[in-house]
Amino acid sequence: MQKNVWQLQEAKNRFSEVVNKALDEGPQIVTRHGEEVVVVLSKEAYSKLKLSQESLVDFFRQSPLVGVELDLTRDHSLPRDVEL
């Protein structure tokens, strides 16, 4: 097992160690029935993740395509005949 992966029961029994490793070594993964279900990470790492998320509106506002006029009219020409 990887050093940053903990089975749930072990993580419960050694929670202080899991927290200390999250602070010192980075995110710690907790598994339940062999499936990764939870990540324990420092407040600093969590804050960085939250800051890196921008809204979709902000993403479009910062796009290099801001102000570009798009022709969104529908093409009414006849469909092409394509052989398959």
Structure, explained:
The chain has helices spanning 8-13, 15-25, 43-51, 56-61, and strands at residues 5-7, 28-32, 35-40. It has 84 residues and is an alpha+beta fold. It has a domain at 5-52: 3-Layer(aba) Sandwich (YefM-like fold), CATH 3.40.1620. The mean pLDDT is 90.
Architecture blueprint of SSEs:
Blueprint: E1 5-7, H1 8-13, H2 15-25, E2 28-32, E3 35-40, H3 43-51, H4 56-61
Quantity of strands, as a count: 3
What's the shape?
A: elongated
> Strand order within the widest sheet?
1-2-3
Low-confidence stretches: none
Distance between the termini: 51 Å
CATH topological fold name of one domain: YefM-like fold
CATH class of one domain, named Alpha Beta
What is the average of the pLDDT values? Answer: 90
Largest sheet: 3 strands, mixed
In CATH terms, what is the architecture of one domain? Answer: 3-Layer(aba) Sandwich
CATH homologous superfamily caption of one domain: YefM-like domain
Annotation field: number of helices: 4
Compact description:
The protein is built from 4 helices and 3 strands, in the order E-H-H-E-E-H-H.
Key words describing this protein structure:
single chain, 84 residues, alpha+beta, YefM-like fold, 3-stranded mixed beta sheet, 4 helices, elongated
